[in-house]
């Protein structure tokens, strides 16, 4: 009985070690150079470049644009502020909640599921095909007439692709996460290819990240923008 | 009769397998075609990287032909799970899909609009209520099958 108790205590103590290690590997900050190239079926195109800052505790995504023009975009509390020369140029509702941004999901180790495990979407099936593990996520019943399913594919436990469907079962968007870079132990996609499909035409968006820095201890002011003073 | 059911079940499994298999093919795209589409923007990006601090206005003022490649306003998207196209806007859905977080969002974004917040709250209730009903049904079925 003595040995059983000791064994149980040992198992209990050992179980804390991986938990402690996991906790110590949680990341808080990321900043990177980014570029976004968009090409529309009409032939219209745009290029946006700059540097993005995100702190998981502050939950503001700050984009310091350098091209086409110097500007600061701050995504905070579901509002997107465009600031030029210290003045607010526009303030719009943006459903791009920081919690579901690629930055937050990667830092909090939820990118693999695309953050769907944090929503009411339910995983309905998991299949392995070739080198991919594909999970089908279904919307809650009450919203099934408004939302379609989402397929998430992972390769080597990294998010590879996401396919969005409308309620009719038609594909409306595809996203691919490529060129993963490991920085300070965190794996982050260096390229995101997005294809939006509408009425048989496709819009392409390619987002690239370079010079990724994780958990920088300096430049605290880069990760917070006093939006309260902008109201 | 047993053999017929077995055969039917076998056919069903195969068809289900076929409908599931082949999903990997959805996760592909024509990378070459997209590279071609992005060719001009790649060229522009290269120029900007080689000329740090250059702006579009300055390029246009210099008569740089690359500046004419930008025809649309810039945007930032694709960084998040959420997009208006995918989820729609109705407050009911925010509550239904995102639960309490969705309700808070609608409250904050809607400038404390009580009507919209109530819709989000109802969405959350419907979602949890549906789940509860389903669990109740499964529980009853489980009980009945035990007898």
- Cα shape of chain B: elongated
- Return the string of H and E elements of chain B: HHHHHHH
The side-by-side strand order for the widest beta sheet of chain A comes to 6-5-4-3-2-1-13-12-11-10-9-8-7
Please, how many helices of chain A?
2
The number of helical elements of chain B comes to 7
**What global shape of chain A is seen?**
globular
- The assembly state of the depicted protein chains is heterodimer
Using only C-alpha atoms, the radius of gyration of chain B works out to 27 Å
Q: List the domain count of chain A as a whole number.
A: 1
Q: Percent of residues of chain A in helical segments?
A: 10-25%
Largest interface: A-B, 76 and 61 residues
What is the radius of gyration of chain A? 21 Å
Uncertain residue segments of chain A? 18-24
CATH architecture assignment name of chain A: Clam
By CATH, the topology of chain A is outer membrane lipoprotein receptor (LolB), chain A
Major β-sheet of chain A, in short?
Answer: 13 strands, antiparallel
- Our estimate of the beta-strand percent of chain A is over 45%
The count of strands of chain A amounts to: 13
N-to-C SSE series of chain A?
HEEEEEEHEEEEEEE
Structural class of chain B, by secondary structure, is mainly alpha
Instruction: Give me the secondary-structure category of chain A.
Output: mainly beta
Explain this structure to me?
The complex is a heterodimer of chains A (231) and B (147). Chain A is mainly β and 231 residues long. Chain A has two helices and 13 strands. The model of chain A is unreliable at 18-24 (pLDDT under 50). Residues 84-89 of chain B have low confidence and may be disordered. Chain B has helices at residues 2-20, 31-37, 39-50, 56-61, 84-87, 91-109, 114-146. Chain B is built from seven helices and no strands. Chains A and B meet through strand 1, strand 2, strand 3, helix 2 and strand 7 of A and helix 2, helix 3, helix 5, helix 6 and helix 7 of B.
